[in-house]
Task: structure prediction
Amino acid sequence: MTLAAADFAVPPDVQSHFSLDDARRLVELRRELHRHPELSWQETETAATLAAALTSFGITDVARVAGTGLVARIPGRDRSAPVVALRGDIDALPIAESTGLPFTSEHAGVMHACGHDVHASWAVAAARLLLAKPATGDVLVVFQPAEEVGDGARAVIESGALANVAAIFGGHVDRRFEVGQVVAQAGALAASTDTFEVEILGAGAHGARPHESADPIVAAAAIVTALQTLVSRRLDPAHPGVVTVGTINAGTASNIIPDRARLSGTIRATTVAARTLLTRELVRMVSDVAKAYGVTAATSLSSGTPPIVNPERMASIAANAVTRVLGDAALVPLGTTNMGGEDFAVYMESIPGCFMRIGAREPGGRVIAAHSPGYYAAEGALFIGAAVLAECARSASAMLAAERSP
Ligand code: NI
Result:
């Protein structure tokens, strides 16, 4: 189906960046991706659609990465200049869509409820813009699988595809902000997302003879209560953190004291120091409270993504790119810190970069929570994200090239 010009709109600020035909094809690409969402590590049709779109836009240097991902190389004007990367994630979520959009998901129980259809499309669009107006050095555009399960970025890094990259930029659509508003600031943008499991071992007994037991349920209750003081009494209140116990399981019958109980939960923090402190204190507290109740407890930790903390320099490159493309009024503050996670943080462990929030609410539209069945990103965000990311790549590339020793 070919869209008529009246069926979509490019935001006025970035209209000059896109021909009408390119804009139409990008909107068609976004809707195609939205209609055919795929879960993390299953993005085969998505990767094929994106590869075909890149080819149709004249981008020929495209390789598979991390299984279902792609990396496209857009040549710069000086092939020996430092390389910059842009990243768009491409996976969807196990949610049944209820948006009622004309391009609603055709895959039962799967939908783009986090806007990665737009991220993948703006990555293609940014590649197109960089082909038309190249950066100083080459730009790698990464189409990353499996962001939602938190390990796609790690797989891209481990593939070595970004080994020589000097800076990386990415962004996320956000319906708290209108199309045309962008958050590009230094500091914490997303939280770390570690999980913990605690197995408490006591001694079972008849429910009528508790003195013969070492009751793991009472110990579990005490541990859950004690953990509430990690954030309120251990963490510097200037730095947000979360410790949530999400599951608690024990027992089989009302008159039996079981011999074990299990807890699991998540730890969120926005600085490396807070992440380290909460993790260390959680392990200590579980062990000490268990001791007080005469049971043993083993805590296992599983590392998720680190926090995203945008460094000053990269944030200022991004902010300048935003104002060049959209004007001074486009830059808005993040406001409330986001305690969600984002695996872009994994790139930033080894590559300096900046992660942005790109407004995705149509004027007069509602705030709709990401990861909910009614979520979608306004189409205009596609063009804003593309133009801003392409400009970030050009600016960073020019700056890094100028810094090279003569
Ligand atoms: Ni997302």
Q: What stands out?
A: The chain has two domains: 5-190+307-404, 194-302. The chain has a mean pLDDT of 96.
